[in-house]
Each structure stands twice: as C-alpha cells, then as structure tokens.
Amino acid sequence: MKRSVGFxxxxxxxxxxxxxSASTTGQEFQAFYDWVFGAATGFLGRGIAITxxxxxLAIGAGMGxxxxxxxxxxxxxxxxxxxxxxxxLFGSALI
Length: 95
What we know:
Keywords: Membrane, Signal, Transmembrane, Transmembrane helix. By secondary structure, the protein is an all-alpha fold.
C-alpha cells in the first residue's frame, strides 16, 4: 500500500515541471489553436450555445419536464464561457 502511494506521488511530481510549459510549446499547432479558439469564442460558439439552449428548452417544454430545459440552459452557459476557462487553465503557470 505504501509503495503504491509513493509511486503515485512520484508520478505526480514528475509531471509538475512539465505542466508549467503547457501553453508555450507546440508552435506548429498555433494556427489550428487560434482557429478553434476563435470559432469557439466567436459567433460560431455563441450560435451553437444559443441553439443548444433553445433545443433544450423546446425538449423540456415538449416533455413537460424541467430537467431537459435546465440542461439546455446549462449547456449554453458552459458553451459560452467554457473555452475561456480552458484557455486560462492551460495558460497558467501551474495547473
């Protein structure tokens, strides 16, 4: 038991130094990242988030239940602020 705990701690600490450079390497993917982030935070991402919210509300109204409607609204909120949160997490010095 103690050996496995020690291994897990060693494994976690070995990746600690690598996580600090998570957003500074891989320049060959910078154009792809810029396109995906721009699409997710731009009009495409907003349109998908609003569409998901409307579909969830319509399904919830059709079924007469609140859970699908709340899931649609939650999906719209996460879709609109999610890319910024993910970018902040990977852009931080320590994850």
